[in-house]
Amino acid sequence: MRQADWGVLSPRWAGIRSQEIDVCGTSVHYLSTDAGQAGPTHLLIHPMAGSASMLLDLIAPLRTLGPVVAPDLPGTLFGHTVSPHPRAAKAAPNARFLRAFAARLGVQDAVVHGWSMGALVAVLFAGSAPERVGRVVLAAPALPGPLPADEVLFWRTAGRLGLAIGPPAARAVLRLTGRRLLDLKLKMVTESGDRPGGTSAGGDLSWLSPEMTALLSAEVRSAQPQRLGDAVTAFASVISALFIDQRPIHQAIADMSAPALLLWGDQDPLIPQSTIDELARRRPDWERCVFATAGHLLPLEASGGYVTAVGQWLAAAEDSP
């Protein structure tokens, strides 16, 4: 879905615009808004296979801290940026895409926000384009946690084999069942958003604004089943990074020079406490903020608290000598 001004759907989204730009021969759709006050550009990375419009309820309050830009990643299921090649939806190519996108817009020293699988892309992007990244916010981050020795062995053997044969088989099945799966997802979103405590994708949809719940339903309804294959590609690359070979992302975490803020909801069923503790062990210099009762949909469940935490973190950096 595109809107010249998203205020036509909700006053809370007024001033947020859909725009397009050519990046290396690919037409890229992104959302942007002017700043409510002077500040750094905030570059938002949505969960892989999601879309920039998932972030509308975060963009609206975040613009008080500076201009906001949120692109649709290549091959996203619900967005408008097509996949220029079969591997484009993977994490590393997405990071390279962001480097080209940021260069095309002239973005410098941005505050880069990565949510869920987008946090993996954010860390890789920060390492590949440090001149574009001033600070990094990692929300409900899909990053490697600790693995017991027996699980390491499992993932390096059976897991590696499963990842080799699973995605092609999944794509074949999705060609036949994709529409039915999307219809099931639509039912889950609709029913979960109508009742307190209704969960989907690891969060409580009843906390979302009615406008966002309606938008998510509309995007699932209009999604193209043939693009589910790119979602499989994205998911497989994340599984590989988190479980099969953690070394590249561990190195990227160690090498990341930009200051980082970890945001996590203590009711997140997808990102356990052990992952956050492991990140804190590897990077004790990273700040951390825990949201009581929030789940994996933290940027939407608690957008106001999210922006407050980021604003305080940025203000503290400005006040420090």
End-to-end Cα distance, whole Å, is 45 Å
Q: Which class do the helix and strand fractions yield?
A: alpha/beta
Following the backbone from N to C, one meets helices and strands in this order, namely: EEEHEHEHEHEEHHHEHEHH
Mean pLDDT: 88
CATH topology: Rossmann fold
Across the major sheet, the strand order is 1-2-4-3-5-6-9-10
How many domains? The number is: 1
CATH architecture: 3-Layer(aba) Sandwich
Q: Would you identify the CATH H-level superfamily?
A: Alpha/Beta hydrolase fold, catalytic domain
What Rg do the Cα atoms give? 19 Å
Q: Count the DSSP helices.
A: 10
Shape: globular
Q: Major beta sheet, specifics?
A: 8 strands, mixed
Task: Write down how many β-strands occur, each being a DSSP E stretch of 2 or more residues.
Answer: 10
Structure description:
This protein is an alpha/beta fold. The protein has a single domain, classed as Alpha/Beta hydrolase fold, catalytic domain (Rossmann fold). Helices cover 46% and strands 16% of the residues. It is built from ten helices and ten strands. The strands form two sheets. Strands 1-2-4-3-5-6-9-10 form an eight-stranded mixed sheet, sandwiched between helices. Strand 9, helix 8 and strand 10 form a beta-alpha-beta unit. Helix 3 packs across helix 7 and helix 4 runs antiparallel to helix 6. The longest helix has 45 residues. The N and C termini lie far apart (45 Å). About 2% of the residues have low confidence.
